[in-house]
């Protein structure tokens, strides 16, 4: 599935399709979804309960929005994705290159929730703390093979595993590899979609493994993680959504025993 994304996933179309805050016809759930993610991540990290030295994000895509809330609580951040052009987009944003995607509206949204930082402070923090942008393949036992990375205090992943895995067995294996990146006591923050069979990026359609809450919580428990929170947002208009056929989005927090 990684090779399929490498060949057909276009980061610029993905930005326009999912992360422009302007309303796009047929995709009115986009802003609701992004707000749900930003809100849940803000709540998670503003407790101050989760902090440490190292944060890894797996399957970051070309985005940085999932790191906006967490970045103030970790010293070093590693971002990663299978697709070369996605990693290049992150690197372009880190260098503040002309024409890179503008995340300031997303940062402003989080600032309004927090009532403290400014988008400029967030951008500066991220640019200082994201130390590495690595190729990763969540289908490998060590997703960063042949590079070995030290155990992380926090792992975040958003919408990656369901897109990277063809069935529940491979999802279980990938979740095990992702959990393997955490130190004991470390926290996994996982964002995804339930009951989804495909998503599209422009004309390109990508298959997803169909998941439900029971399967995810049981799998995490088998893998030695305790689920502390499982938050859901139901899709508003499943049939009118041209982007994907998800029934709900989830955000979960699980701690490695
Ligand atoms: C729907 S995008 C999610 C991107 C971003 N995390 C977000 O929340 O918008 C799915 C991502 O999974 C990545 N991906 C697909 N297969 C992968 C694999 N085997 N290992 C790592 N990443 C993979 C794709 O390159 C893509 O960036």
UniProtKB/TrEMBL annotation:
Keywords per UniProt: Methyltransferase, S-adenosyl-L-methionine, Transferase
GO CC aspect terms: cytosol
Binding site for S-adenosyl-L-methionine: 14, 19, 81, 86, 137-138
Phylogenetic lineage: Eukaryota, Metazoa, Chordata, Craniata, Vertebrata
Protein name as catalogued: Nicotinamide N-methyltransferase
UniProt cross-references to SUPFAM superfamilies, sorted A to Z: S-adenosyl-L-methionine-dependent methyltransferases
PANTHER family the record matches: NICOTINAMIDE N-METHYLTRANSFERASE, NNMT/PNMT/TEMT FAMILY MEMBER
GO biological process: methylation
GO molecular function terms attached to this record: N-methyltransferase activity; S-adenosylmethionine-dependent methyltransferase activity
Family assignment from sequence similarity: Belongs to the class I-like SAM-binding methyltransferase superfamily. NNMT/PNMT/TEMT family.
A Pfam family of this chain: NNMT_PNMT_TEMT
């Amino acid at each position: 599935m990684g090779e399929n994304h490498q060949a057909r996933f276009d980061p610029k179309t993905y930005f326009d399709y999912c992360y422009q805050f302007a309303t796009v016809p047929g995709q009115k759930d986009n802003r609701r979804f992004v707000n749900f993610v930003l809100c849940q991540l803000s709540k998670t990290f503003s407790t101050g309960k989760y902090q440490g030295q190292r944060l890894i994000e797996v399957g970051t895509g070309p985005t940085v929005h999932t790191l906006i809330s967490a970045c103030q609580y970790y010293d070093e951040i590693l971002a990663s994705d299978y697709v070369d052009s996605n990693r290049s987009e992150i690197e372009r944003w880190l260098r503040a290159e002309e024409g890179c995607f503008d995340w300031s509206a997303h940062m402003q949204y989080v600032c309004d929730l927090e009532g403290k930082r400014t988008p400029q402070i967030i951008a500066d923090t991220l640019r200082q703390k994201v130390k590495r942008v690595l190729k990763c393949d969540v289908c490998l036992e060590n997703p960063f093979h042949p590079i070995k990375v030290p155990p992380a205090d926090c792992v975040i992943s958003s919408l990656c595993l369901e897109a990277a895995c063809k069935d529940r067995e491979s999802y279980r294996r990938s979740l095990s590899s992702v959990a393997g990146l955490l130190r004991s006591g470390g926290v996994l923050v996982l964002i995804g979609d339930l009951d989804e069979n495909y998503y599209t990026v422009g004309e390109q359609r990508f298959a997803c493994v169909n998941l439900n809450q029971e399967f995810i919580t049981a799998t995490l428990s088998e893998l030695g993680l305790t689920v502390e929170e499982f938050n859901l947002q139901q899709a508003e208009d499943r049939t009118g959504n041209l982007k994907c056929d998800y029934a709900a989005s989830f955000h979960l927090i699980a701690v490695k025993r």
